[in-house]
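Researcher: Re-running this chain for the archive, since the previous output was lost when a drive failed. Same request as before.
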Amino acid sequence: MFRRRLPLPPLVAIGLVVLLLAWLLLGDLQRFQDEAPDAEARPTAEATRVEVATRHAEPHAPTLVLQGQLEARRELLLRARQAGRVAALPVAEGSRVEAGSVLLELARDELPERQAQAEDDLALARAELAGAEELRRRELISNTELLRRQAEVSRAVAELAALRRQLDDTRPTAPFAGVLDRLDVELGELVQVGETWGRLVDDTRLVATAWAPQRDALELEAGLPAELRLLDDSRLAGEVSVVGRRADDETHSFRVEVAADNPEGRRLAGASATLRIRLPERRVQRLSPALLTLDAEGRLAVKHLDDADRVVASPVTLVDADTRVARVTGLPDPVRLITLGGALVEAGERVEAVEAEAPAAEER
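Model: Regenerated structure tokens:
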């Protein structure tokens, strides 16, 4: 038959209740441990340690280096202004001449006789004009006749001037001192008007022409000192003589000319040269090229600290640089430069600054 269930002893019932409460408490505690603690309860993260060094601006005159070509200060192609046969070559090719020296002699043929005739015609026209003026005062001729006599004098003067010019053109002279660099005619050869028969070069002073990028051209001006370095490593001292006012349509660069004396008269016209132009002095910060970075806008920047040890990324302008040192403008003076650890921190972050023991070798 059915057995009767006996009631649990009191101690066993109490033990079960205690175990149940303990299980509930442990489960609630585990739930609390799985949740993230409040922000106020978190431990404070340590600030990133960076190495800094104080830098002061210093004066610096940067050098703009351009590649150019040398030309003589003055160069002239000699062209015939009068047709004729070459009668004499008074100057040998390659000779140095003074201004006004006769370079070529053409046969004058009948030109002297025609000049003499023109002089006589002018004298006659002037005499007839004088007589006509006297008759006009006495009202013996008309005013129209007097004007005709004046026109005849003018024609005679023009004819004589043209003949004299033609005679002068048979003896072309050097417009400036230089070297007869080229002579393209021989004795007895016939030359025509406009034909090139030689070239005169004045290379006592040279002009080097180059093209400067528009960013660098803004600082160029006439009178800046410059140096021309030739292929044999010899050098000529000069100065900027011309800076173009308008950029080239294709390259957007500006023409720059540097003039320099050629005291030894070396054959340099047409040769290549390196132009080293000393730009105006400015104050720059020296630092390692490795410290240059890009900011959020893609500009060249340098990281440093403010007075509250917060990171600042200031945009800078690169003046010049090599493998050892970069010179920039745009930083405060003085500046607490981050020399180590800059790649680990971002702008606005507070850091722990440690002074560098000594400047790096490339920054000295």
